[in-house]
Amino acid sequence: MQVHDDLLDNPDYFQNRELSWLDFNARVIEEADDKTNPLFEQLKFLAIGSSNLDEFYKVRVAGLQDQQVMGVDEADTKKQWLPKKQLQEITKKNQKQVKRQYTLFETKKKELKEHAIAFTKVTNLSDCDKAHAKRLFTSDIAPAITPYGIDAYRPFPHVSDGVLHLFVRLRKTDSTYSAIVPIPKRLKRIFSIKKADKRLLLFSEDIVQSFLSDLFHGYQLIHSFAFRVTRNADIEIQEEGAEDLLSRIEDYLEKRKNGRAVRLEIEEHQMNKSIEQDIAYLKKELTVKQRDIYFLKGPLDLTFLHDVVDTLDSADLNLSFKSFTPFYPNLYHRKSIYDLVKHQDMFFYHPFDSFQPIIQFIEQAVSDEQTIAIKQTLYRVSHHSPLVQALERAAKKGIQVTVLVELKARFDEANNVHWAKKLEEAGAHILYGVKGLKTHTKATLVIKKEPSGFARYAHLGTGNYNEKTATLYTDMGIVTANKKITQDVFDFFNYLSGYNEQPAYHYLHVSPFDIRDAFIENIEKEISLHKQFQNGHIIAKMNSLTDKKMLVKLYEASQAGVKIELIVRGICCLIPGIPGISENITVRSVIGRFLEHNRVYYFYHNGSENLYLSSADMMTRNMIKRVEIAFPVLDTSLKNHIISILTLYLYDNVKAWTLNNKGLYTKLKPGGDKPVHAQKELMQL
Questions:
Q1: In the Cβ-directed half-sphere of 493, how many Cα atoms lie within 13 Å?
Q2: 429 appears as a binding residue in the annotation
Q3: In the list 88, 326, 431, 599, which could disulfide-bond 614, CB 3.0-4.6 Å?
Q4: Hey, what CATH class is 11-319 in?
Q5: Is residue 115 annotated as part of the catalytic site, yes or no?
Q6: Mean pLDDT lowest for which of 1-15, 56-70, 352-366, 546-560?
Q7: Where are the beta strands (DSSP E) in 536-578?
């Protein structure tokens, strides 16, 4: 049964991308209310929710605001809402979610008190502790503070993105004055006073507010309040005519610091006419709409909770997750990765499997005199990446090193520029991506001249070459010596480095376009086989599902009777369970200790079973605006192992949320069933 064209344009069958993202962030925030998480971990989820929201405003909301400012009335492809409507709906939903976040923060504060940890203000301290706070101000804060008066000779200062500021109203004789006091980001946000039986936590902004008279001698303080601005980071990089993309990126990073204000957060105070006037003044100077002002019942920028946990963690280890050591077989100590992979493909599921073998894959190649060339794509790497350091050593040894460093990896551009320069200085051949596209692929190729001839070895994965995030994100990858796959990876790198048409690959599917075409072809085959054998089954696990062509094709498969089980961590624009449209589709989201990041696509095909791992989500940007790879798992035992992992996630009833046909998520509870916690079971395995 085909989906009729009139149904495709029915907004009732789709969810708006931005609101679906907010639903995801709400699920993250709700982890702060999950008693299966230790208290410090609950605090981290509140912090992650704030960090997520900052990026959402800098990029997604900023983009919609730009469209509205420029009069671009382009409706979204799912709900058919114009930018103005989307911004209104975002505000409506987000105001409720932020309120929930701060309600949870108040609850966590009470729970911390049970462990003798208390947030407090200087005004509540004893005289002795107030004197200690004054010493902290004098020695650790005041030397870094620069107050900015505002008058005819001192214009309204630049308010930096994400930095806490104080707006100060002063009086001298019969006149009033305004000033702004930035709290530099590099200052400690939290100061701790340890008492015999408890620990008191003070905010830097509260300490400054308490001793403002020291900054404005001769003036009387009327009031002060904290505020914070989020700025547009969605500034387009102009690649056209850019002979040196590296310098263009560096210019872009400078411009991004001064993007237009897209959100104003203000710590809520008892309102009076004077404060209302000051807020109106801020709103005018920053040119933000009332819609984008948030009054918060508590400290601004809850990401500080990460610092709180880091400061206090040693005080009570029972308040954090127990440490977990990824699986690292002794075999890897005794044998080379290359000796092992000659006999069988190797599968890794991080962080349950150690990332160390992937580092060894490069380091062993560097130390092997038979190595001729190493080729790798880098999207997000750590600040002290052992992989990049190994590539530097390889280049200095005379191994041909080719590295594609994606300079347009948002918020990692500066780090990538740094590594690109370092690698180039070492003698590596550096590529800066493909014009007009982001290269999001995770691929490495090692070429050796062995006694039997040239041999190629490849690593393909779903996650970044980053040993730090490999302990926090779930990602899958394989190391293979399969001749056809390694030939494909070889052709892929030549496509990136030279002037070539997209190659005809044996096994790889490479975006732009080909991954979507391949998945549509697999879905159509599943529909066809289901009509014959009535056993159609698709399982797909990804971060986000937004591409309308994929949504429509999944609806078509559901209408044909194919069973479709989706595990979508974040945005999902598909609505399951709609009679006659998506009644054979289920959607679940798993939010847990580790960020679910791997992408797996499974098609039953009447028992022949195609299973792909990919760097790509089913998002339009991944399908047509990025260089991505989807690669099959050919080894039957590995394929069965991955299917068993997917099945475990489909039975999770501790950390899973299910999406209903009203577009609402409900968290599952074991009830009378045995609790199934996928991540926990994988750690135990």
A1: 28
A2: no
A3: 599
A4: alpha beta
A5: no
A6: 1-15
A7: 537-542, 563-568
